[in-house]
């Protein structure tokens, strides 16, 4: 571990802001009826094709994959590419028969990983 007197090996990587992500379900979920799961994650989505003010190419930094798992079982997955917008909004249909936990996970370049867990209670 380096202390304040130890010189660093190079410039520090820019701090990544806290991740903001939302997973929204309808107010009422009925067993056996399809409903829409809406997801949004705050992420800048750099394509790797843009140059900064000094003409240096900004490294690619995109969300590469989103997965939805209901009680551990994969129910939705999408591989994303550079053409997706910043702060990607993705919605997918789901049908449940009983209570469960939905975990939506995002993974990307430069070690980006985040997940949100929501309880589903059909009535």
Architecture overview:
There is one protein chain. This protein is mostly beta strands and 123 residues long. The protein has one domain: Immunoglobulins (Immunoglobulin-like). Helices cover 0% and strands 40% of the residues. It has no helices and seven strands. The protein has a four-stranded antiparallel β-sheet, with no helix packed on it. It has a three-stranded antiparallel β-sheet with strand order 1-2-5, with no helix packed on it. Strand 3 (63-70) and strand 4 (73-79) form a beta hairpin. The N and C termini lie far apart (53 Å). The model is unreliable at 1-13 (pLDDT under 50).
What's this, in brief?
By secondary structure, this protein is mostly beta strands.
* Strands, count: 7
Largest beta-sheet characterization: 4 strands, antiparallel
Give the topology string: H per helix, E per strand: EEEEEEE
- The chain-level mean pLDDT equals 88
Q: Gyration radius, to the nearest Å? A: 19 Å
CATH class label: Mainly Beta
Provide the spatial order of strands within the biggest beta sheet: 4-3-6-7
In the CATH hierarchy, what is the architecture at level 2?
A: Sandwich
Distance between the termini: 53 Å
Contiguous helical run count:
0
Helix content: under 10%
CATH topology: Immunoglobulin-like
- Tally of individual domains: 1
Beta content comes to 35-45%
Low-confidence stretches: 1-13
**Structural class, from helix and strand content?**
mainly beta
CATH-level-4 superfamily name: Immunoglobulins
Outline type = elongated
């Amino acid at each position: 571990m380096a202390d304040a007197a130890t010189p660093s090996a190079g410039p520090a990587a820019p701090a990544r802001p806290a991740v903001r992500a939302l997973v929204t379900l309808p107010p009422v979920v009925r067993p056996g009826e399809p409903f829409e799961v809406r997801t949004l994650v705050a992420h800048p989505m750099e394509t790797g094709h843009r140059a900064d003010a000094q003409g240096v190419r900004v490294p690619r930094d995109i969300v590469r994959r989103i997965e939805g798992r209901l009680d551990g079982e994969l129910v939705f997955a999408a591989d994303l590419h550079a053409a997706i917008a910043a702060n990607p909004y993705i919605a997918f249909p789901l049908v449940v028969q009983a209570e469960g936990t939905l975990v939506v996970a995002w993974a990307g370049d430069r070690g980006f990983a985040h997940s949100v867990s929501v309880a589903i209670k059909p009535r």
